[in-house]
Amino acid sequence: MLLIGFGEFERHALSAFIRLSAKRLPAYVETDDLASADFIIADADHPGAIDDLRRAARGADTVYIGSVAPEGALGWAMRPIDPMQVFRELDGAVALRMFRHTPPPPLHVASAPAPLAVDRQPQRRASDVATEPLALLVDDSEIALRFLQRQLEALGFRTESCTDSQGALAKLAQQRYEAVFVDLDLGPDSAMNGFTLCQHVKRQRAQGAGLPPRVIIVSAHGSTTDRVRGTFAGCDAYLTKPLDDGLLAQQLRSLGLLAATEQERPRRRSRRPSDADAAAAPPKAPVDSTPS
User: Is 121 helix (H, G, I), strand (E, B) or coil?
Assistant: First the structure.
């Protein structure tokens, strides 16, 4: 780990966290050599730091701290420095690299084909499957997952879910999704938080074939700072909990993931009868006003 820039106080705090990381996994060791550093923490407001790292082609290994981060950065955090946030970004990067270098499990090949089961459910047409977008839901709360699943299935989505970033990366490596819904706080068992996972989903797909899925952050945190961080992470939309059904549908339509249905289209206002309507109407029977 290499530190670039920073004043004495900030450098001392970050160095202390690096030393403390020796008692955990992943552990980090500080170095003063750029060539031997696996990751860099750089002061984005330090003159020349961004240019030096860009010339060394190390921007993708760098977590920047400051007012802005260049495109392609590994991560970004604002001041005042939160070392826990910085190291969550780094832990997510380590988890992603380990995932990329872990061979997939061997496929199980059956010795003989299993007999075909009779499916008594209504047959689904190919056109039906093609029109149902598949969404991945990532949240450490089972209740939140079930609630979002019901909302999306009511809008015609198929859904799959997991509770941490490791499960999300495994599913994304095996399946293409039109949308990924990510909570920000994924709990202590997750190697990445929602910001880091969003960033890696976008970057991983951009480096591979095909367009990346739409990433929608869903969180109870709706501050301006969180929304800005979501934008820098590459999210396509930022929604706050609890999710409003109408707002969710509107956002999905704006992303091209949902077509307006007859129920969602605004109702036509009843118009007042015109003179032509009155002329075309059959004459009313005369009313006898003679008192009885």
Answer: coil
- The reply to whether 139 and 202 lie within a common domain is yes
Based on the number of CB atoms within 10 Å of its own CB, is 189 exposed (0-12), middle (13-18) or buried (19 or more)? exposed
Note the pLDDT tens digit of each residue in 40-85.
999 998 888 888 898 999 988 898 898 877 888 887 777 778 777 7
Asked whether residue 22 is assigned to any structural domain, the reply reads yes
- Length of the chain in residues, anyone? 292
Walk across the sheet containing 62-65 and list its strands: 2-4, 40-43, 62-65, 75-77
Contact at 8 Å (CB) between 36 and 67? no
Domain count, the chain: 2
Q: Which of 17, 70, 66, 25 is nearest to 46 (CA)?
A: 66
Q: How far from chain centre, in Å, is Cα 199? A: 8
- Write the CA distances from 78 to 69, 129, 200, 206, 222, integer angstroms: 9, 44, 19, 25, 17
Cross-strand partners of 160: 136
Each residue of 157-190: pLDDT tens digit?
999 999 999 999 999 988 899 999 999 989 888 8
Look up residue 143 and give its amino acid: I
Kind plus residue range of the DSSP H or E element containing 3: strand 2-4
- Amino acid in the structure at residue 33: D
Q: What's 38's DSSP letter?
A: S
136/97 same-domain check:
no
- pTM for the predicted model, two decimal places: 0.51
Tell me how far apart the alpha carbons of residues 286 and 58 are, in angstroms, rounded to a whole number: 92
